[in-house]
Amino acid sequence: MFAVVDCNNFYASCERVFNPALNGRPVVVLSNNDGCIIARSEEAKALGIKMGVPAFQIADFLVQNNVAVYSSNYALYGDLSRRVMNVLERFTPELEIYSIDEAFLNLAGLPVQLEEYARKIRATVLKNTGIPVSVGIGPTKVLAKTANHYAKKAPENHGIYVLDGPAKIDEALKLFAIDEVWGIGRQYSKLLKSIGVETAWDFIRLPDGWVRKRMTVVGLRVKKELEGISCMEMELIPAAKKVICTSRSFGEPQTELEPLREAVATFAARCAEKLRCQHSCAGMLMVFIHTNGFKANEPQYERNFVCKLPVPTNSTMELIRYALFALEAIYRKGYRYKKAGVLVLDIAPEDRVQGALFDRVDRAKHAAVTKTLDAINSKYGRDTLKIATQGSGKKWKMRQEKLSPSYTTKWNEIITVRV
DNA sequence: TCTGGGGTCCTAGGACCC
DNA sequence: TCTGGGGTCCTAGGACCC
């Protein structure tokens, strides 16, 4: 059996942990640059606030309904996520951290009563972290996700649901809308509904051949999992990323090269950090910039530039150099740039790098410098030490007007208690 | 004024090899 | 009548996830 533990309205719940005045009040969290609604408390959902809506479109509505609005605070969410995962680790020998707010637990062979165990997991996470979670249990990952849905949506289940036994599974699948199935997105829902498939139960009645042909092996796997045949394994060790991207929208549109250079250098530096964190090097780098596509009356421009690196690297200095070269190759005057980004790809383990005969970079020196850089920044906080080209970010930094304190990761933002 | 960010996997088709 | 067979690698596009 698999359990999937999913934090309820995770970002909104994080905001509540150290600010209990938010309990009972509608809370929403905005995407980067304070753009769209990306998390909603139950009260906010009840008000009809939809996922992904641009915040400015419903600004008045938010005020009228006394909705608490927050900028994304990933320092806080990341830390609380780590705490939740630490608790979950105690409940299984096999934990797969699937996303910032979700994990699979392999319960195979544990001598426990499943419902009781689920209740215990839920209670422990809530007590130790302040985060409410839902626990779904089933014989396959897809069925566990289905169970999680029932745990979350039906109040009488109190946040837990165990899907076991053919009769119970059958009954659940008959009531389960096809577009709620994990792995069935918008396009496949549309396709399936067009041939009269409305529920998960309808779906598993289709011939395998049809599913394989129209939905590839991925769709067929989902079908098998719904039928109770497990074909998605636990992934215990997070695989190294094959592509790493750092990109941001700017708080204000940028017209000049200099702030773009700062931004792109900063994104390249962040990519380098992410590479070093997973002990990889990248063999290619791409920079992209574009204007605001929503502004139909403004001149539009969108370009990217790919550099093949002579020797795969994770050096901040080297990646910045190539990133700036790429930026300068595509930058044109006369546009209002809204967003830029750096991607690194062609990623390989750092101990398998193919050198070059005429390499003029002193790689040992770069490695020593970045090691020191990482050590200092890990101890004193991100960007305590950085490359001068990265600048201050004053001009282009994203909007974060409603940022809560990073209660658990910054000394000067630690919670204050009034007597 | 204002519209997020970061990933994965699969397939088809083209180019190329012997 | 009849136009081989068997591969690899790469890329773009499309689907999905959180």
Describe the structure.
- With 419 residues, the chain is of the alpha+beta class.
- The chain folds into three domains: 1-162, 2-Layer Sandwich (Alpha-Beta Plaits), CATH 3.30.70; 165-238, DNA polymerase, domain 1; 244-390, 2-Layer Sandwich (Dna Ligase, domain 1), CATH 3.30.1490.100.
- The protein is 38% helix and 20% strand.
- The chain is built from 13 helices and twelve strands.
- The protein has helices at residues 10-17, 42-46, 59-64, 74-89, 114-129, 141-153, 166-174, 186-194, 200-204, 208-226, 257-277, 316-330, 363-380, and strands at 2-7, 27-30, 37-40, 68-70, 95-99, 102-106, 133-138, 160-162, 244-254, 280-291, 302-313, 337-349.
- The chain has a five-stranded mixed beta sheet with strand order 5-6-1-7-8.
- α4 runs antiparallel to α5 and α11 (257-277) runs antiparallel to α12.
- The chain is globular and about 65 Å long.
- The two termini are 48 Å apart.
- The mean pLDDT is 95.
- It binds a DNA duplex (18 and 18 nucleotides) through residues 30-36, 38, 52-57, 59, 72, 98-102, 182-188, 215-219, 239, 241-249, 252, 292-294, 339, 341, 398-399.
Write the layout of secondary structure elements.
Elements lengths: L1 E6 L2 H8 L9 E4 L6 E4 L1 H5 L12 H6 L3 E3 L3 H16 L5 E5 L2 E5 L7 H16 L3 E6 L2 H13 L6 E3 L3 H9 L11 H9 L5 H5 L3 H19 L17 E11 L2 H21 L2 E12 L10 E12 L2 H15 L6 E13 L13 H18 L39
Parallel strand pairs: 2-4, 7-8
Antiparallel strand pairs: 1-6, 1-7, 2-3, 5-6, 9-12, 10-11, 10-12
Helix pairs in contact: 4-5, 11-12
The chain binds a DNA duplex (18 and 18 nucleotides) through helix 8, helix 10 and strand 9.
